[in-house]
Amino acid sequence: MTDNIIEVRDLVKHFPVRVGVLFKRTVGHVRAVDGVSFDLKRGETLGVVGESGCGKSTLAQVLMRLEPPTSGTATFEGRDILKMKGGELRKLRRDIQIVLQDPYTSLNPRMTVGDIIGEPFEIHPEVAPKASRAKKVRELLDVVGLNPEHINRYPHQFSGGQRQRIGIARALALRPKVIVCDEPVSALDVSIQAQVMNLLGDLQTEFGLSYVFIAHDLSVVRHLSDRVAVMYLGKMVEVGTEEEIYEHPTHPYTQALLSAVPVPDPELRDHRQVIRLEGDVPSPVDPPSGCRFRTRCWKAQDICATEEPKLVTRVANHPSACHFAEEKSVVP
Ligand SMILES: Nc1ncnc2c1ncn2[C@@H]1O[C@H](COP(=O)(O)OP(=O)(O)OP(=O)(O)O)[C@@H](O)[C@H]1O
Ligand SMILES: [Mg+2]
Description:
332 residues, Rossmann fold, 6-stranded mixed beta sheet, 30% helix, transport, ABC_transporter-like_ATP-bd, ATP-binding, Oligopep_ABC_C
């Protein structure tokens, strides 16, 4: 019996690029997720970090079974998510929930918060019979730090941070085991971000939740993450514990991302080395041969164009997909 609540192996999701009047001709594929493997342990937070378009949301969609994968497997508590049907799939729809980035567009403006938070009970009446729903919704409002008396208000009557709390309450309604947080604080002011992150941390302890926590920026996930996976163009390039990734990064891309994290201490800021990445992220339709990061990498050599580096442990006790992985402290 393993302690992994989710196991993902060689997961691939390609979207066809179609052209023509009726979009019938396929001219290529967006390799949104291109061979990703990882485990999520029960009760842990796995941070997933990478630039826009690297495949983070696509990965979340496949895990939620909102998109079928092109190939690969994903299991939840040992059962294949992608093969689930009927009652098993209904149960999965309770056990894994998602919190989305934009609290402005993800809540239906014509529904009261009571209806928004209680909607999952309509689909899963076994969790809360009709007579007890209003009470449950009030409890959920309280759990996420909102006033239960505001149950009949509409989303526009709440601030951005409060709306995200509504989204979180809704995700909690069915007592899930895993919550996929897809950039839940990216649209919020920095001061509000910390409050929502703290709430998510408290809820994790209270309800024994496991999180896949997606973000653009390494600084956002540090506090909450037990482990962090760094993605680049559909692949994971480095995976390690919070300490391994932040204190002993070995992949040049991770090192570059870390060097861009704002440092509040001016002493440290003056001494650290800033790595500037050249160029843009290449197209996921036609990624570079060999190592996908090589076109922006200052370490790239001939082998990087011909041989794809595997995500294996070379140095520093954690896996890194770089032929020249080397421990380097970025922030002194
Ligand atoms: N339904 C779709 N059809 C075609 N291409 C898609 C689809 N969804 C995503 N893509 C493409 O797949 C790639 C990965 O997108 P994805 O949304 O997963 O990235 P992301 O890491 O979540 O980015 P962001 O940080 O901007 O949210 C992008 O090139 C995107 O344009
Ligand atoms: Mg996204």
